Amino acid sequence: MLVVVTALAFDFTNGFHDTANAMATSIATKALQPKTAVALSGILNLIGAFLSVEVALTVTNAVVKIQNKDGTPKDALTADGGQALLFIVLAGLAGGIIWNLLTWLLGLPSSSSHALFGGLIGATIAGLGFSGVNWNGDGSKLDGVVGKVILPALLSPVIACLIAAAGTWLIYAVVRGVAERYTNTGFRWGQIGSASLVSLAHGTNDAQKTMGVITLALIASGHWTDTENIPFWVKACCALAIALGTYLGGWRIIRTLGKGLVEIAPPQGMAAESASAAVILTSSHLGFALSTTHVATGSILGTGIGKRGAEVRWKVAGRMVTAWIITLPSAAIVGALLWYIGDVLGGGLIGAIVVFALLVAAAGYMYFRSRQKPVHAGNVNDEWEGSAPSADRTPETV
Amino acid sequence: MNNVTFAFEAAWKVLLIGLVLGAGLPTLFAFGIRTMAWGQGGSAEVDTASAPHPVGRVIGILCFALVLLAVFLGITYIVAYGFGKELSFEHVYPTIQNKD
Lengths: 398, 100
Known about the structure:
The complex is a heterodimer of chains A (398) and B (100). With 398 residues, chain A is mainly α. Chain A is 70% helix and 0% strand.
């Protein structure tokens, strides 16, 4: 049961980590009040999580070999009541959560999916060795760590950036000659609409992953046998967890994305969100797995490039890219470490409890640290300091 | 490294569709705002002396309606896909059908 709780906790961090993707621009341009924005996004995430009923049970197959093709866990791992598998999943999830919290503390929009996959990969390497990881697929389709995680992570921000830049440029070309006050009102509406789409897409994409992981754990421990369906309560819990997380709002990340990267005007916000929505929805439909975070960041950068005279803070962008690169390996290391710690302690219930306790301790510590420099609905839109070349303030200190 | 080939195959499709929907629709929206402003004239324009053109309002609303329609179809498409159906345009107007 610890696995289920941990998985839901991951879903929760996923929610508040990714609110920024959809709502950062709307908040930055004051199209929506910060509180309204996160509430709207939370509700849409909730709906989104329920909307997509496609079975996400094989989600872990993309990166690790702990499941058979039909979604049942590998026999070798269920021999002792599923403990071996549950333990890998637990350590992996814990690794993902810790990394998610850390990047949130630093205000960096790293990918929650990468954190989850990274944690799972790390725990699998620790538990099963390097051959337990599906590195490159079987060559018949886009699969494996390279195909499902690394390549999309490289390509999707570039695609989003191009589309957003094109959109921004076109929009500004079209509305030349219209009074700014008039365009801003109009585009704020467009922005709310397109940002809502991103929230919806996020719910359909990301909640699925947790649902798949929980169901896998239930099957492994013998609480569930149907590989075609996901228990309703799992769906409901995941949907609620991601919605609650979203509502809580990852203000730190919202601030970085909305104010840190580019100063966003409503037309740019709309271009960015439309580009994000289009890329996320199209690519998930084509089976091109990607991270909403990468897409949203790419789009926002793109609007900065597309508008003449707009300033892009490349330093902030650079920090983000660094965070993306290290997310997967770092979460993997945390996941692996936790697995070893638990394994030393026997790997059974005690090990699991210790891993869980470590997770709670780490989360508590980071929460405490965050209180010292809180970022919340009230100050999320304050002027971005450190834009002056001489200042050395970075997102860490915000 | 088949994966690289697959990835680029998917990527250019995403780029193409993304450009049409992700940049095209906002541009249509912008065009709607442009014509609305032209329709209203006066203070809506940088050139505040411009006269109102009622026709602009009609075109503007038409643009917004098209954008809304496209978004609505997009959502329907995804929801329908999740429920094992697909959107078909074979009768010109979209209908929901079972997936083949």
